[in-house]
Every structure is written in C-alpha cells, then in structure tokens.
Amino acid sequence: MKPDALLYPAPKGLYCPIGDFYIDPVQPVERALITHGHSDHARAGHGHVLATRETLDIMRIRYGDDFCGTSQAISLGEPLVVNGVDVGFHPAGHVLGSAQISVRANGVRIVASGDYKRRRDPTCAGFEPVACDVFITEATFGLPVFHHPDDRAETRKLLTSLAQFPERTHVVGAYALGKAQRVIALLREEEYHQPIFIHGALQRLCDYYQSQGIDLGALRPATLAADEKQDFKGTIVIGPPAAFADRWSRRFSDPIASFASGWMLIRQRAKQRGVELPLIISDHCDWAELTATITEIAPAEVWVTHGREEALVRWCELKGIAARPLHLVGYDDEGE
Ligand SMILES: [Zn+2]
C-alpha cells in the first residue's frame, strides 16, 4: 500500500480514508484526532474527538464543555484500533498533553508529529522517537539560520535584568498555553521564588498545570483595577502576546518589555514588537533538532508541513530521503 492511501492532505486537514478520521483538522469534522491544545491544531466543533486527557481538558478550558459532540481520552502508548487502523499517541515534548499520532494499516506506519521539540521541558513529557515509514514533521523553524540558544541561559538574562533594574517592572509576553508555564518553571529552576504576576488570560491554564502536578510556585493576578495602586516594581509580570497590543503592559511602572519566543532570534521582529529584552525560548525544534530527529528516526519518507517546508525537503533530498511538502493550510506560522 502506498502511504497516501493511509493518510493524505485534504482541505480540512490530514485525512485517513480507511479510519475515516482527520488529524488536527482546521474545520469541523465528524471524527478528529488532536495532537495538542494549541488553537490552530485543536478547534472546537468536531463530532468526536480522540486526544490525550490533558489535551481534552485544555480544550474544555478554552472552549467550554460543549467543545465537541463526544470525546475519548487515550493514554500515551495505549494501543487503539479506529475503524481497522492501529492508532497510537506518543509524547511530542511540545506542551502539556502534546502527542505525536501514529497510524498503521496494511503494514504501513505514518507518524504525524504535530508540533514538537527535543529539548528538556519541565512542564511536559519529552519527545519519544517512533520508528515509521513516513514521518510528518513541522518546519516552523526549518531554516539553517534558526538556532535556539540554551533556554536556561535565556532565562538568566531575565533575572540579570531584574537585578540590574530593580525599580522597573519586567513584563514578559508568552503564549498562554505552554510557553507561559515553561517560562515560569524555568525561572523556578533558576531559584527565583518570588511571586510571579500573571495576566488573567493565563490563570486557568496555570491552575490546570498546577493541578497536574507541575509546580509553578506562587502566582498572583496582575490585573489592576483603574483605582488600584498596586506596586509592581521589581517584579516579573507575564501576559499573552495579545495583551501587549492592547497596551496592557503600559499600566506598569517603567516597564521593560520582554517576549519569550523562538522568533526573538530575528532582531527585526523584536524591534517591531517594541521588545527590549528578547528571550529566545521556543516550543519548536530549531534546524539542528529537526534534522537530527529525521536522522534518528530514519523514515523511508518525510512529509513536511507548516513552516519553511522547502528547505527541509531539500535537506532530505540531499541526504537521499524521499520528501515532499504537504502545503497544509490553517496552521499558524507564529506557532503558539
Ligand atoms: Zn503548538
């Protein structure tokens, strides 16, 4: 059987005709398998959703109890057959609950990795390579220029700045799911034990991470009523990127604008966002990690999706690995 008889890119997302299901569909479908809770992969409105318990919980937190018709939780590594297709979920190391999804039928196995990263993350299970015939990889940072530095060193930059400017408020932009909790956990690992102030949009997800045994330490709301005069001098305040657009961060005294993202490697992006203290912390692989992963898994074929597809396809071809871009639409280039 050719691999694309098992899984192929359709307008609504990756479709498995044998199992009659989609992986991370971008429009409502009858049966969806979801890799992780980021909004470009996990959308509301499907008839039936199969995902890890954490991903289902996260979707419920974000969309409400009626986020889908019916849902089924699957554990990492648990074998399951869906309409004759062997399905497995395996850790992707991206955010809490994130999984790669393997599908197998007629002796062909394809792994759709969703979003993934290879470096250690104190807030989620680490990526596990899964042997397969076709490996579907993201390419958010799929250019050789992308190199993510050590995230502990990036975290220390924030603490160094905090020590240098004790009168100022360090306001850090971080995506609400995954990045914010990881930045907090990294700060705790660097022995920063002061309360960290969080924007209201992060509260429920931070509470959820804590309920799952991920210790984020003392968190306090950073919400200020108009007549309130709370002093945030010398503190770290974390908010979602959207909060910076609505000038939320300017409420704080003499703020230093920081932002935690893999894109902070590009100075121009940091400048455009008015970021004084860019922190290059990513929940995606950099180029070296993408290529090392493909080398390690050694699939017969690589399909590349969302991001800089062409460079990674070219790299595979130069290494003698069959590869093609999938041109899936609907996944956010910013990569939450
Ligand atoms: Zn993601």
UniProtKB/TrEMBL annotation:
Its EC number is 3.1.-.-. The keyword Cell cycle does not apply. It comes from the Bacteria. Keywords: Exonuclease, Hydrolase, Ligase, Nuclease. The keyword Ligase applies. One of its GO terms (molecular function) is ligase activity. NCBIfam families: Xnuc_lig_assoc (TIGR04122). PANTHER family: BLL1145 PROTEIN, CLEAVAGE AND POLYADENYLATION SPECIFICITY FACTOR FAMILY MEMBER. This is Ligase-associated DNA damage response exonuclease. The lineage of its organism: Bacteria, Pseudomonadati, Pseudomonadota, Alphaproteobacteria, Hyphomicrobiales.
